[in-house]
Design goal:
The protein is of the alpha/beta class. It has one domain: CBS-domain (Roll), CATH 3.10.580. 30% of the residues lie in helices and 17% in strands. It contains 5 helices and 6 strands, in the order βαββαβαββαα. The strands form 2 sheets. A 3-stranded mixed sheet has the order 1-2-3. Strands 4-5-6 form a 3-stranded mixed sheet. Helix 3 links the parallel strand 4 and strand 5. Helix 4 packs across helix 5. The radius of gyration is 16 Å and the shape is elongated.
């Protein structure tokens, strides 16, 4: 579970800002004590909340996205996306990372969109291994790839 930032709803905006400092596009997973995904927050969400006048000492529960994009590990491995909150409408969002969760929504990993697409297209991937690697796609290129692979694997 390297590179996963776990936060709690009662953490302050200031605390989350310190943890996410400089991590453009990165997200913090808001979890319960059992690591069940409750929501996500990005550095952009934190900055926007401050610009809207919310105190940096306020709790994250005021600003978290409680309907985050995520993908079930079982669907990722089977390459058939059916129940995951991961679909074509996400293209309008600035999503760079997606939590991978168990069937009970326990956070297992976090993947970049590029890595997610690599896993969906790579039939020889090891079933228990998720990892980060340097992106081989440009920012503009992943939109096209995402549309292509989402339509291929979501039916």
């Amino acid at each position: 579970m390297k590179n996963i930032l776990f936060l709690r709803k009662n953490n302050s905006i200031k605390f989350a800002l310190k943890k996410l400092n400089g991590a453009f596009g990165k997200l913090g997973c808001i979890i319960t004590n059992n690591k069940i995904l409750v929501g996500v927050v990005t550095e952009g969400d934190l900055r926007r909340s401050i610009l809207e006048g919310i105190s940096i000492n306020s709790k994250l529960e005021k600003i978290i996205n409680t309907n985050p994009t995520f993908i079930y590990k079982s669907e990722l491995l089977s390459k058939k996306i059916k129940k995951s909150n991961f679909n074509a409408s996400n293209l309008n969002d600035s999503i760079f990372y997606v939590p991978v969760v168990s069937n009970k929504k326990k956070v297992l990993d976090i993947l970049s969109i590029e890595n997610l697409i690599d896993i969906l297209e790579n039939k020889s991937i090891k079933k228990k291994t998720f990892y980060f690697k340097t992106s081989k796609y440009s920012y503009c290129g992943w939109c096209w790839l995402y549309w292509n692979y989402f339509n291929k694997f979501s039916s």
